[in-house]
C-alpha cells in the first residue's frame, strides 16, 4: 500500500490545513484530488493508504457528498477525526475593489457560512459553486470569477489578495474532517470514542425510526449525528447515517449494533475512533445499568439462572 494520503484538493484547502495537524501526515506523501469521490476511490483502488475529507460542519450539518460516498460503493472505515475552526477571507486578484466584484465562488458548504455577509456586502454578486474553496481561488486567479471565499492562507498560493478577512456568519464555526481507509480492526478504545454506522430499514412502517433509535436509547447511548440520505430507490426511501458515543468494544455499543443487525435490512459499520472534541477525562459517566461491568454482571446472572444457581 502506498505511504500516501489523498485529500480534497487542490493545495490550499481547509482540508489540507486540517490534515497537516495529524502527526502521521509528516511521514506520508499528501496527494490532492479534485473531489471527495476521487479521493475515496483512490483508497478503494489501492492508490492511497487513506483519504482525508470533510464530513460535517457546525452550520449545515453533515456534508452530503462525503456521506453518500461512504454509504455507497466498496466499504471504507473511519480511523480518525479532526475539528478545524473556520473563518473565510474574500480573495481577489490584486487591485480588485469590492465594488467591482460581480461573481463569487467557493465550495457549496461555504455558502451557508457566509450567506449573511454576502447579502450585506455583495447583494448583487452571482454565486457559482467550485469543487473546493482552494479550487475557487484558482479559478479567480485564472480570471473566471472576481472573488472566492477561501482560507486567507490560500492567497499567497494563488497570487491573490485578501480583500476582507475574518468572514463568518456563525461564531465558532467548525468543520469536522475524517481520515478514511480500508476496513480493518478498529483502534483500541480511548475512553472518548465515537462509532459511525449506516442503517437501512427492512420496510417503511409507523415507528420504524423509533425502533432503530430505541436500540441506542435503551442502552444509554447518546447520538451525535443523525441524518437521513436517499437510497436512490425512489421517493421516501432513505437510509440513516448515525454517529453514536462509545466504541464497538463497549458492551452497550456492541449490543446495540447486534440489535440493529437483527431488525435492519442492512447495517454498514463505518468505524469506532477517538473523538476530537473531548478528552477521556471529560466524558460523562454512562447512565446507571449501562457500564461494561453491569452488562457482565447481568449476563452472569442469566447464566446462573440457566444453571439453577440463582
Q: Give the oligomeric state.
A: single chain
Question: Structural class given helices, strands, pairing?
Answer: alpha/beta
Shape: elongated
The level of helicity is 25-40%
**Estimated share of beta-strand residues:** 25-35%
The biggest beta sheet is recorded as:
6 strands, mixed
| Computed CA radius of gyration, to the nearest angstrom | 22 Å
Name the helix and strand elements from N-terminus to C-terminus, one letter apiece. EHEHEEHEEEHEHEHEEEHEEHEH
- Average pLDDT: 94
The total strand number stands at 15
Number of DSSP helices? 9
Instruction: Give the distance, in angstroms, between the N- and C-terminal Cα atoms.
Output: 54 Å
Low-confidence stretches: none
Offer a quick outline of the entry.
This protein is 27% helix and 31% strand. By secondary structure, it is an alpha/beta fold.
Give me the secondary-structure topology.
Layout: E1 4-8, H1 14-19, E2 29-33, H2 36-44, E3 50-57, E4 61-62, H3 64-71, E5 77-85, E6 88-92, E7 103-106, H4 111-121, E8 126-129, H5 133-141, E9 147-150, H6 154-157, E10 161-167, E11 174-181, E12 193-201, H7 208-217, E13 223-230, E14 238-245, H8 251-263, E15 264-274, H9 292-306
Parallel strand pairs: 1-2, 1-3, 7-8, 7-9
Antiparallel strand pairs: 3-4, 3-11, 5-11, 6-9, 6-10, 12-14, 12-15, 13-14
Helix pairs in contact: 7-8
Detailed description of the structure:
It is built from nine helices and 15 strands. The chain is α/β, with parallel strands linked by helices. The strands form three sheets. Strands 1, 2, 3, 4, 5 and 11 form a six-stranded mixed sheet that branches. α7 runs antiparallel to α8. It is elongated. The protein starts with a strand and ends with a helix. The model has no long low-confidence stretch (mean pLDDT 94).
Amino acid at each position: 500500500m502506498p505511504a500516501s494520503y489523498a485529500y480534497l484538493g487542490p493545495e490550499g484547502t481547509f482540508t489540507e490545513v486540517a490534515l497537516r495537524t495529524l502527526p502521521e501526515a509528516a511521514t506520508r506523501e499528501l496527494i490532492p484530488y479534485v473531489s471527495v469521490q476521487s479521493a475515496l476511490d483512490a483508497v478503494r483502488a489501492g492508490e492511497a493508504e487513506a483519504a482525508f475529507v470533510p464530513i460535517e460542519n457546525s452550520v449545515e450539518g453533515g456534508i452530503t457528498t462525503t456521506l453518500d460516498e461512504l454509504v455507497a460503493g466498496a466499504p471504507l472505515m473511519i480511523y480518525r477525526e479532526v475539528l478545524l475552526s473556520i473563518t473565510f477571507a474574500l480573495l481577489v486578484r490584486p487591485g480588485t475593489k469590492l465594488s467591482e466584484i460581480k461573481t463569487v465562488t467557493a465550495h457549496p458548504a461555504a455558502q451557508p457560512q457566509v450567506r449573511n455577509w454576502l447579502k450585506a456586502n455583495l447583494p448583487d454578486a452571482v454565486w457559482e459553486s467550485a469543487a473546493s474553496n482552494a479550487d475557487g481561488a484558482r479559478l479567480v486567479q485564472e480570471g473566471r470569477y472576481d472573488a472566492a471565499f477561501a482560507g486567507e492562507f490560500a492567497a499567497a498560493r494563488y497570487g491573490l489578495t485578501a480583500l476582507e478577512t475574518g468572514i463568518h456568519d456563525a461564531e465558532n464555526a467548525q468543520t469536522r474532517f475524517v481520515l478514511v481507509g480500508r476496513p480493518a480492526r478498529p483502534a483500541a478504545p480511548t475512553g472518548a470514542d465515537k462509532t459511525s454506522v449506516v442503517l437501512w430499514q427492512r420496510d417503511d412502517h409507523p415507528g420504524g425510526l423509533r425502533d432503530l433509535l430505541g436500540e441506542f436509547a435503551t442502552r444509554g447511548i447518546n447520538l451525535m449525528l443523525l441524518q437521513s440520505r436517499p437510497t436512490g430507490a425512489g421517493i421516501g426511501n432513505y437510509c440513516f447515517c448515525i454517529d453514536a458515543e462509545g466504541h464497538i468494544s463497549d458492551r452497550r455499543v456492541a449490543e446495540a449494533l447486534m440489535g440493529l443487525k437483527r431488525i435492519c435490512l442492512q447495517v454498514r459499520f463505518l468505524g469506532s475512533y477517538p473523538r476530537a472534541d473531548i478528552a477521556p477525562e471529560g466524558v460523562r459517566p454512562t447512565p446507571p445499568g449501562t457500564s461494561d461491568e453491569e452488562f457482565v454482571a447481568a449476563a452472569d446472572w442469566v447464566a446462573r439462572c440457566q444453571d439453577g444457581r440463582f
